[in-house]
Amino acid sequence: MEYNNILIESDNNIAVLTINRPQKLNALNKETIQELHRAFSELNLDNNIKIILLTGSGTKAFVAGADISEFANFDVSQGSDLAKNGQDLLFNFIENLETPVIAAINGFALGGGLELAMACHFRVASDNAKMGLPEVSLGVIPGYGGTQRLPQLIGKGKAMELIMTANMLTANEAKEYGLVNYVVTQEELLPLCKKLASKISRNSSTAITSAIKAINANFNSNVNGYEIEIKQFGKCFGTDDFLEGTTAFLNKRKPNFQ
Ligand code: COA
What we know:
Elements lengths: L5 E6 L2 E6 L10 H16 L5 E6 L4 E3 L4 H4 L4 H20 L5 E5 L2 E3 L1 H8 L2 E5 L3 E3 L13 H9 L1 H10 L3 E2 H7 L4 E3 L1 H16 L3 H13 L7 H12 L3 H11 L8
Parallel strand pairs: 2-3, 3-5, 4-6, 5-7, 6-8, 7-10
Antiparallel strand pairs: 1-2, 8-9
Helix pairs in contact: 1-3, 4-5, 5-6, 9-10
The protein binds coenzyme A.
The site of coenzyme A has 16 residues, from α2 and β6.
């Protein structure tokens, strides 16, 4: 599949998806959002891919936000559509993807860029990364889920402050806040993410998908997370992976999940 704004490489069941508009600091224009949706859909259906790493090209930015030049003239209804389409196509889509996604934040993750990283299942940052939601400095608010996911990840008071001040966090501050799990040098970023991905890829993919669904249910007020956990737990008992995992344990060998 041909893409204009993203690159995909895969090796050892791990796909690296790179947003590739470095001249615009990888800002998310409409085409990039559509391409990302297509790429995530295809990788999710590819049985050889067990985990996806998402990063930005170049050394300066993960994603410097939604492409401001595309929405500067929008009216109320176009603004609402922009947020709704983006949330449906990309942000909620990644959060609910069956395949785990790690954000490798290699530089600026601002506005839609931080929202994109927050939609991923967890985040690792390089030490040059800067993260923030500067939308109120443009007269708008985060529209790709930032007002919801930031308080989930760092708490309401810190999220209020970060959004109201439009301040940027350093990578180490983001780690202190629990927004990213690790901070390493830029050279170490993808190797660490691949190491984590490799560990994850050796576990049961079907169980990981169930875990994603159950954990996400904790943040969905329309469902009872405990009930979703019971349902997903039960579902695991019908999988080949459960048979393989328990058989391997009882036979004192390592499991070989397909
Ligand atoms: N939308 C569209 N273009 C963007 C962009 C965005 N969110 N962020 C950066 N760019 C473009 C710049 O316009 C510039 O393009 P040009 O060379 O054609 O003029 C190019 O990327 C490089 O950015 P520049 O601002 O020159 O780099 P810098 O190192 O001086 O500053 C930032 C880096 C990230 C601080 C600055 O680009 C910035 O503030 N970007 C917007 C961040 C933002 O508000 N995001 C939320 C959007 S809702």
